[in-house]
Amino acid sequence: MKTAIITDIHANREAFEACLAHAEGRVDGYAILGDLVGYGADPGWVVDRVAGLAADGAPVVRGNHDLGVVEGAEPRMNPDARQVVEWTRGRLDAAQLAFLAGLPLEIVAGDYHFVHASPRAPRAWEYVNGIREAERAMAAAKARITVCGHVHQPALYHVGPANRVVRFEPSLDTPIPLRGPRAWLVVPGSAGQPRDGDQAACYAVIDQALARVTFHRVPYDHETAAAKIRAAGLPESLARRLTEGG
Ligand code: ZN
Question: Which partner from 99, 191, 209, 246 sits 20 to 30 angstroms from 44, CA to CA?
Fold first, then answer.
């Protein structure tokens, strides 16, 4: 079974469609790791498409922006993000809001723990952006391989010899073995709002049978996605992030 892991779509239809098209024929299924909405101008389309994948059996977990749309933005969310969360709520119908409200915070399936932020208190939305955070995340994980989003840059961590956590720079388009028995943590990076200076959408393919991960970058029409953000009257900084990749 090969699964395309797509996370932090952030209502970016163009990026999501590009990832789905790239994954088509390479994978048997999908997993979506939260933040379906927020920042981008196509929340309804993205929620409907993800709901379709979920109906076909895809694991889907909830991100902090999804929660914000359903329950109100958290005070610590930055002002631009809060503005879009409020705007997004007005753009979704009852069924779309109910879908977001029903998403679980985490899903454990065999060797894999899928979560938006960190297995350590998933609702605390901790950023796994360093060795210490990765170590704590893997210690709390309920499976050998943790796969998470929230951090908008691809990353790969492993518990190596002497239980030291190592960070790898993930190479693209090459399967990387997630060898046992020790833990791994995979961050595919954001599909809809990459923040590492590269505009191309991020996603990863996990081959469950062989325990391998392949990181991909998919160029997409980020100018159109940015133009839609401007046309919707959403903050200019969010449009610029797509055209600059960060
Ligand atoms: Zn996000």
Answer: 246
